[in-house]
Amino acid sequence: MSITALSPMSAARLPLSAAFLQALHGAARHDAALAETMRDAGYAAGQALHVQFTEWLAQRHEAPPAQLGDQRFPTLLAEFLAADGWGTLTIESIGESVLSLSSPDWIEAPVHLEPSGQPSCHVSTGLWAGLLGEIAGAPLAALEVECRAAGAEQCRWLIASPDVLAYVYEAMERGTDWDRAAASA
Ligand SMILES: [Zn+2]
Predict the structure, then answer these.
(1) How far does the centroid of ligand 1 lie from the alpha carbon of residue 148, in Å?
(2) The whole model's pTM is what?
(3) What is the CATH number of domain 18-47+84-183?
(4) Which of 8, 33, 85, 158 is the most buried (most CB within 10 A)?
């Protein structure tokens, strides 16, 4: 991780077009080092997004993110992200210890390009780990298991502790479907 600390200005909001993210996405298709850099940058953006989400909630007289109930949290996070144009997000629990985030219209995936071979919304993958790790107060890892840029109908990420996600990843490497792997974690 090359980006570790947020400066006071890091949570400033910039109106950048989706084309910025999608151009990075396209450039990382054949560049594993760039993909990792994008996940690191997404992680820092996710930490900053936690600040923004907290402020957004306060303006609505809602509790801070970590104190929202299991019903309110998914609804409000989805509303917050949709208002900024990220896409339509569904947040669900799978089994005891895995969270699923999915979207049929997530903005990072450039679906106008030829489908890539594997999930590749790297900035968003880092974003979830940064944002949700801040909310949980503990390290979380994110893995994109379905991606619109790879021809799927939606992008879907699994979020869990690094140990649990490593177990899910290894099960998937052995050929287990992501949903069965996540449910058994
Ligand atoms: Zn994707």
Answers:
(1) 5
(2) 0.92
(3) 3.30.1380.20
(4) 158
